[in-house]
């Protein structure tokens, strides 16, 4: 449990303090934000396992953050926090991609139970990897190189970050939006760039992965890229 990081975006200082203290007590690491602007930045570009999102926030509505996170991170676990009686917000939140909701005021036990339940049914986030082998070679992330037998091909820091992220999510198609958020650390909304495709092309060349019939870095039409 202690390995999980929770991002909580809540403007009420007393509620936020209670959430942080309670989750910390149960072994979670907690990141916090008190307004929608900072909250969105952390939610879209930060490194965390689950988002606790209040919908009534200063600066930027929680619903806008929810939509931005769903666009950038389609599988990110999210629990919305709503006031008692706000059934419309709960329904809208669930329709916009929230995994669950908690109604204020809530007990510590209920909050922790909801968090544990959502994390249990969410895919485990892959942990960092040092190297990955493939037919004919190995990628050594620590040394920033690809080895084909005795031949070594250097990788740039960005190529290491991109390939490590794809390899850590092996077998899952990763959207360009998710790569922009988690590798380039920029907000994908409104961003038009070919840099990801260019980096993929260079990596295929260094991996000796035939671009016309790639076997390692696949293009998944309409979804993004996948490391197989």
Task: List low-confidence stretches.
Answer: none
Number of helices: 8
Beta strands, count? 11
What strand line-up does the widest sheet have? 2-1-3-4-5
Terminus-to-terminus distance = 29 Å
- Structural class of the helix and strand makeup? alpha/beta
Order of helices and strands: EHEHEHEHEHEEEEHHHEE
Beta-strand proportion:
15-25%
Helix content: 25-40%
Averaging pLDDT over every residue, what do you get?
87
| Biggest pleated-sheet summary | 5 strands, parallel
Over all CA atoms, what is the radius of gyration? 20 Å
Shape: elongated
Outline the structure in words.
- Helix content is 39%, strand content 22%.
- The protein contains 8 helices and 11 strands.
- It has helices at residues 13-25, 36-45, 62-72, 87-95, 108-120, 157-168, 176-182, 195-207, and strands at residues 5-9, 29-33, 50-54, 78-83, 100-104, 131-134, 137-140, 145-148, 151-154, 217-220, 224-227.
- The strands form 3 sheets. A 5-stranded parallel beta sheet has the order 2-1-3-4-5, sandwiched between helices. Strands 6-7-8-9 form a 4-stranded antiparallel beta sheet, covered by helices on one side. A two-stranded antiparallel sheet has the order 10-11.
- α2 packs parallel to α3 (62-72).
- The longest helix is centred in the N-terminal third of the chain and has 13 residues, at 13-25.
- The model has no long low-confidence stretch (mean pLDDT 87).
């Amino acid at each position: 449990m202690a390995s999980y990081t929770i991002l909580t975006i809540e403007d009420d200082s007393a509620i936020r303090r209670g959430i942080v203290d309670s989750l910390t007590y149960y072994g979670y690491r907690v990141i916090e934000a008190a307004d929608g602007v900072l909250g969105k930045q952390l939610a879209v570009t930060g490194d965390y396992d689950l988002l606790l999102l209040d919908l009534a926030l200063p600066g930027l509505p929680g619903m806008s953050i929810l939509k931005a996170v769903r666009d950038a991170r389609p599988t990110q676990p999210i629990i919305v926090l709503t006031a008692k009686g706000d059934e419309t917000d709960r329904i809208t939140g669930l329709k916009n991609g929230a995994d669950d909701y908690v109604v204020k005021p809530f007990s510590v036990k209920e909050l922790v139970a909801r968090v544990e339940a959502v994390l249990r049914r969410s895919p485990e986030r892959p942990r960092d990897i040092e190297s990955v082998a493939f037919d004919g070679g190995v990628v050594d992330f620590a040394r920033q190189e690809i080895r084909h037998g005795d031949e070594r091909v250097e990788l740039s820091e960005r190529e290491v970050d991109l390939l490590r992220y794809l390899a850590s999510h092996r077998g899952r198609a990763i959207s360009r939006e998710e790569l922009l958020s988690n590798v380039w650390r920029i907000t994908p909304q409104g961003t038009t760039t070919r840099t990801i495709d260019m980096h993929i092309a260079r990596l295929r060349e260094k991996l000796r992965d035939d671009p016309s019939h790639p076997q390692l870095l696949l293009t998944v039409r309409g979804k993004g890229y996948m490391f197989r």
